[in-house]
Structure formats: structure tokens, C-alpha cells
Amino acid sequence: MASFDNLLYELNATTGILRLTINRPTKLNALSVATIQEIHRAMQQALDDTAVRGIILTGSGEKSFVAGADIAELTAQDEITARRVAESGQETFCMIEESTKPVIAAVNGFALGGGCELAMACHIRVASENARFGQPEVNLGLIPGYGGTQRLTQLIGKGKALELMLTTDMLKADEALRLGLVNHVVPQAELLAFTEQLLSRILTKAPLALGMVIECVNAYYDKDRHGYQTEANAFARCFGTADFREGSSAFLEKRPAQFTGN
């Protein structure tokens, strides 16, 4: 069994429920490239393990599910490496989306940028009352790169998805519920217990049929993944712009960005 530096991999042998916890609390569980690689390995391990029947994905602590990508790490990318980063993230998140074992996100705080994208890749989302969702990438001169332009549109519709990505407004949990971005909102103290109860109820059903339902629903949206490739290409082009260098520098220096459109 693989070991992980940025994840907690906890399998309840009695229920068959695996809890995967993004565990970078000092970084608000931000998604580094290494963390995404570990999520990929953990998912592959879970899919290969017959003892794993369902998966809960969450973040450590009560403040953040995943607060976004690791911005300091992104500043080291160029157009070529950025495309690889986007495609790698998309591949991992598609593995979650296409898992025939049910995956539920227990969103325990900020789910921004890559964190919102990660939650959207899960089959069902349960949010704590303090959860906040958003895709703030254009503040950095970037766009979502791990499937956000595709999944947010699928979940809440084109108009509202465009508004959220263009304004970078954050959604509170109750508004996310109203829009259909999340399935349930519960008090923070009840989040994991509620999510486990929901998954346990699902796991009383026929495993093969559950997997087939997931496969069929995903097939409705899959248009040969051209949208994902378009997103990865555009994400990569951002890294050749002065606006990305300015946006990321401003973020790290904690000052307002001054974009020039270059």
C-alpha cells in the first residue's frame, strides 16, 4: 500500500468507506502538483482495492476543503509545462468523476479554484454551513485549468457559471445549494457523520448498478473531451502573459493587481 505526504488515507474495513483527506493545513490544503499526483495514486489504489466500496473526499481542519492551487508553485510554470499541469489535473479529476465507486465530497470550508474543481469532480457534494465556493482564477490572469469551465457550466448552467468565473464572486453554502452546486448543507459538526450516512445508504444498493448509473450519467456530458482540451490549451497560454506574472506576483505580495491586457 502506497504512503502519502499530503493525504490521509483511512479505510474503515467494516463499512468499506475510504476517507481521503487533503492534509496540508498550513497551506489551507492548497493543491500542489505533488498533491494532485498523490490524489491520482490514492484513487488508483482505492479503485484496485476490493475492500474499498465508496470514498469520502475532504480537507483537514474546519477552515478549508482546498483553498486553491499552490500559487507560488504555478509562477514557476511556462506555457509548455502549464499545459502538462492542466492535463495532469484534468486526468486525475476525471478519474474521480469516472470512478464506478461512489465519491462524495465533504466540503468543510473554502473550496476555491482547484478546490472547487476537485469538489465538482466528485459525484455528490455535501457542504458545511461555512463552506464557500468560487473560481477566482481571472484575478491572477488565469482561467480554471482542472475542468472548472466545463463542470461548473454542467452543474449550474452557462449564464451563472460565466458570471461566477468572470466576477470571481464566492458562493455561500446556501446559495450553492439553491443553484445545485451542492446536494446538502449541514452544520460543520455534522458534516462527516452526515456524509458517511449518505454514502452508507448508497452502499446498500447493487455495486455494479451503482457504477453503471455513474457511467451513464457521465456519458451524457462527454463530448470527446474537446472542452477539456480547449481549457488546457487556454490555461497554458495564460502562462505566456504579463497579466499572469502581474496577477501571481500581486497575490504573493498581497497587493492589488494592475493588469494591462498583455
CATH topology tier name of the largest domain: 2-enoyl-CoA Hydratase, Chain A, domain 1
Q: Return the CATH architecture of the largest domain.
A: Alpha-Beta Complex
The helix-strand sequence is: EEHEEHHEEHEEHHEHEHHHH
Average pLDDT over all residues: 94
Percent strand equals: 15-25%
| Fourth CATH level, the homologous superfamily of the largest domain | 2-enoyl-CoA Hydratase, Chain A, domain 1
Q: Using only CA atoms, what is the Rg?
A: 18 Å
Q: List segments where confidence is low: pLDDT < 50 over at least 5 consecutive residues.
A: none
Gap between N and C termini: 47 Å
Which CATH first-tier class of the largest domain would you pick? Alpha Beta
What is the overall shape?
A: globular
Number of strands: 10
Indicate the percent of residues in helices: 40-55%
Oligomer: single chain
Number of domains: 2
Please tell me about this protein's structure:
There is one protein chain. α3 (79-97) packs antiparallel against α10 (226-238). Strands 1-2-3-5-7-10 form a 6-stranded mixed sheet, with helices on both faces. By secondary structure, it is of the alpha/beta class. It has 11 helices and 10 strands. The model has no long low-confidence stretch (mean pLDDT 94).
